[in-house]
Design brief:
The structure holds two protein chains of two kinds.
Chain A: E1 15-20, E2 23-26, E3 30-31, H1 32-51, H2 70-94, H3 97-102, H4 104-121, H5 123-126, H6 150-159, H7 184-197, H8 208-218, H9 220-223, H10 249-258, H11 273-285
Antiparallel strand pairs in A: 1-2
Helix pairs in contact in A: 2-11, 4-11, 6-11, 7-8, 7-10
Chain B: H1 13-16, E1 20-21, H2 34-52, E2 69-72, E3 77-80, E4 83-85, H3 91-111, H4 114-119, H5 121-137, H6 140-148, H7 155-181, H8 186-194, H9 200-220, H10 222-228, H11 231-238, E5 245-248, H12 250-253, H13 259-267, H14 280-284, H15 304-316, E6 323-326, H16 328-335, H17 347-369, E7 373-379, E8 386-387, E9 393-403, E10 409-416, E11 422-425, E12 437-440, E13 444-454, E14 463-472, E15 478-486
Antiparallel strand pairs in B: 2-3, 3-4, 5-6, 7-9, 8-9, 9-13, 10-12, 10-14, 11-13, 14-15
Helix pairs in contact in B: 2-5, 3-17, 5-7, 5-9, 7-9
């Protein structure tokens, strides 16, 4: 036991013998179970070092007794997830596009799957919300180059446009200026005519009769009578309010002079059929689908 | 440091003192009286509610849980009799916690740590475990004698110890068992548990709570209150001089002397106190303190010492309540010959009561007026607006409809804001033009993609508010939400 001189005269309790500026610390020890618990946590921590990966080495780290690795666990989780989703994705692959639209569960799955796949594969060109950009169509609106039904959308995704795939959409806007088919003043005239088709203003001194004549001779073959477009050829409707490259005069002159041939890659082979189906449903459900 | 310590001299425990203090085991004696009866009553009530509430049924219709109180984690629902709460209504629990905390403050400002003495689970279960111990091993003196007696373990003593721990474990096991019943249909789960078909997590929780109940109530007892619980420290900051604490009225008690000597001294007109130093208040104390040393951290305010002292006072023919719920102000007043005053209504208690009333009132009001049909709307951010081929402007919204009722609903959705809008829900063919009808299954949510289109000639401003009205076409119940309609 403690020496008698270590007894605090005021409280009558023993002290630890430590003294700071004349103040001595009373000995108020912890309960035994508390101290034992504390030692047990230390033992536990040492056990943890041995059982689990813990110490960094120069290359790598200690791997622990059981070779536990959170990375391996994640891999297993992912594999399990694929297994769980397998049935649902198989059901999606087996169903027709029309059936998916009618089944709320399949529709929800297709939209969810389509959305993530769209973000990974399509967003670089079409934007994360499919709003498009100059030269890249907005998939939310109701205007479609190659058709907006479920089947048409799926076909476009599968084979692409001018993608080099055997079944790809073909058709291009000729370079009327560059190839010398039209003279510069004819191009200005026809550009103004095209603007007039969708009700936009035309430039000063513009000859509507001449414009209509040039259009009929050069453009109707693809864009159709009155410029209503042709989805077989991917020729846009020129009478509506949506312009892929822009409706202002300089842009139209550039389009007519240089031609346009935007490319959409084919996704067949890169994505599995069920995923392509899901994406078609997702794009269709954005609101513009026919 | 004034003293230089030579490390070579400090080599044994003797120089430092012991590293730990051995526990002084407490042997509370049984006692009868007012506060003991209150404690029994509260224990029966609290444990009765805890153990049997899961078996109370409540009819919610076909397919819905028929348990009155159920925490349905897989489906994220909480059922409390007629109330069904969804995860987004978790603020009711926040309100409940605020009320509980302020109620604790109020209790504390009126009667000190009465929570600790009467209602705290640690107290309730420890008290129950002490009752078992007394029943099996006898009262204080017997238990002390049995613990002290050394020598070979007799069969009788061994079976006594085994019986005590068996009953303790049984209570602990049932405590854990009742816990898991709140998370699943109780009769079904009991059947599953008995046939070992229940989910592993149920057995794990029963195991955890069996162990904690057995260790905390059976073995650690008052040490939980003294060493582990923060409340004794917190309550010191919450109390004031008017709070009623279990108090030894030293003005009446001192000087202590034996009954016989007191009678003699009183006969010759000398002043003596009522305390006869019988140590009954110490013997019955579950935390093993002497209340006559004044208010102290270990005291849980259970009032058993009051009962013990009252019994003694009655026996020796002195007035009771030498120990009672009182405060120092009154002791001082008595010493100065003034009548004691008790002040329960004080600014502190008024504020606490008002807070409880306000928070409770808000909760009751919102609970009574909450809608069982709800709608949330989120505007598409990308693209924020779409121009269609005929020049009209379309905005897309993600609409989430919540049907918290026990029946399927057919609702109609209207939108107003832009002039002559058309409203369309993707995947739904509208029966009535521009008024989509949706079926929301009971007790579920439906997420929809909703498109609002304003005709080109309406020429809407850059941003105008749009209101969505969802109406149950059968019952007329309605909900609405507001967002914006944006033009490019």
């Amino acid at each position: 036991m403690t020496d008698h001189s270590d007894i605090d005269s005021v409280s009558g309790k023993s002290t630890t013998g430590h003294e700071w500026d004349g103040i001595r610390e009373l000995n108020t020890p912890l309960p035994r179970w508390w101290v034992i618990s504390f030692y047990l946590t230390i033992v536990w921590a040492i056990g943890y070092w041995i059982v689990y990966p813990a110490w960094p080495l120069i290359q790598g780290n200690t791997t622990g007794l059981f070779g536990y690795s959170s990375r391996a666990n994640v891999a297993v989780e992912f594999a399990n997830l694929e297994k769980i989703r397998g049935d649902k994705m198989a059901a999606l692959g087996a169903a027709s596009l029309a059936d998916i639209e009618k089944d709320p569960a399949l529709l929800a799955l297709a939209r969810a799957k389509g959305k993530t796949v769209f973000g990974d594969n399509c967003a670089p060109c079409h934007g994360s919300g499919a709003a498009g950009a100059k030269g890249y169509p907005n998939l939310n609106d109701d205007d479609w180059l190659w058709g907006g039904t479920l089947d048409q959308i799926m076909q476009t995704i599968q084979y692409g446009a001018r993608s080099g795939h055997a079944k790809t959409h073909e058709g291009q806007m000729l370079a009327f200026g560059k190839d010398g088919v039209l003279k510069p003043d004819e191009i200005v005239t026809v550009a103004n005519y095209v603007r007039s088709l969708s009700g936009l203003s035309t430039g000063k001194g513009y000859d509507a009769v001449k414009g209509e004549k040039i259009f009929a001779e050069n453009c109707v073959a693809c864009h159709g009578d009155g410029g209503k477009g042709n989805q077989e050829l991917g020729a846009p409707n020129l009478t509506d309010k949506i312009w892929l490259y822009g409706a202002d005069e300089p842009t139209l002159i550039e389009t007519i002079s240089q031609g346009r041939a935007g490319v959409m890659p084919a996704w067949e082979g890169r994505l599995d059929p069920a995923t392509i189906k899901a994406m078609a449903v997702y794009v269709h459900s954005l609101g513009g689908g026919k | 440091m004034n003293k230089t310590v030579n490390p070579n001299e400090l080599t044994s425990d003797d120089d430092y003192g012991p590293l730990y203090a051995a526990r002084k085991k407490v042997y509370p004696q049984s006692v009868s009286g007012t506060f003991r009866r209150i404690k029994w009553g509260l224990m029966a009530f609290c444990l009765g509610v805890y153990y049997f509430l899961p078996f109370v049924r409540w009819n919610r219709g076909l397919g819905a849980p028929s348990q009155a109180v159920l925490i349905d984690l897989p489906n994220s629902r909480f059922y409390f009799f007629f109330i069904e709460l969804w995860p987004q209504e978790v603020y009711y629990f926040t309100g409940l916690l605020i009320v509980a905390a302020v109620a604790l403050f109020l209790m504390n400002s009126i009667g000190g740590r009465i929570w600790c003495g009467y209602l705290c689970p640690q107290t309730v279960w420890t008290d129950l475990f002490y009752a078992v111990e007394r029943f099996v091993e006898g009262d204080r003196r017997e238990r002390m004698r049995k613990d002290k007696s050394s020598g070979a373990l007799t069969l009788k003593r061994g079976s006594e110890i085994a019986l005590k721990h068996s009953i303790w474990l049984l209570i602990a096991w049932w405590t854990g068992g009742a816990w898991v019943l709140y998370f699943n249909d109780a009769p079904t789960l009991v059947k599953e548990l008995l046939t070992f078909q229940a989910p592993m997590i149920a057995y794990i929780w029963i195991g955890i709570l069996t162990a904690t109940t057995y260790v905390l109530a059976g073995h650690m007892r008052e040490q939980v209150c003294t060493y582990m619980c923060p409340w004794p420290r917190i309550q010191a900051a919450l109390t004031d001089e008017w709070a009623l604490n279990v108090t030894y009225r030293y003005d009446r008690g001192e000087k202590r002397t034996s009954v016989k000597k007191a009678a003699e001294l009183r006969a010759i007109g000398e002043h003596v106190g009522d305390c006869v130093d019988c140590y009954q208040c110490v013997a019955v104390c579950p935390t093993g303190i002497d209340i006559r040393n004044g208010p102290q951290l270990e005291c849980i305010q259970c009032g058993l010492c009051i009962d013990a002292c009252d019994n003694v006072m009655t026996k020796i023919g002195r007035p009771t309540r030498l120990i009672g719920y009182d405060n120092d102000i009154n002791i001082q007043r008595r010493q100065n010959g003034k009548a004691p005053i008790y002040r329960i209504v004080r600014p502190r208690t008024i504020i606490y009561s008002a807070m409880i009333a306000a928070v409770g009132g808000i909760m009751l009001y919102t609970l009574a007026t909450r809608s069982l049909l709800d709608v949330n709307v989120l505007h598409d951010r990308n693209p924020i607006a779409v121009k269609l081929s005929d020049g009209s402007i379309r905005n897309a919204y993600t609409v989430r409809l919540l049907n918290k009722s026990g029946y399927d609903r057919v609702v109609a959705i209207d939108a107003d804001g832009p002039a002559n809008p058309t409203v369309h829900v993707v995947g739904v063919d509208s029966v009535t033009p521009d008024r989509p009808m949706i079926v929301i299954p009971r007790d579920s949510t439906s997420e929809l993609r909703l498109l609002v289109t304003a005709p080109a000639e309406s020429n809407p401003e850059k941003s105008i508010p749009v209101h969505f009205h969802v109406t149950d076409i059968g019952l007329g119940e309605a909900a609405s939400a507001t967002d914006n309609f944006v033009s490019p």
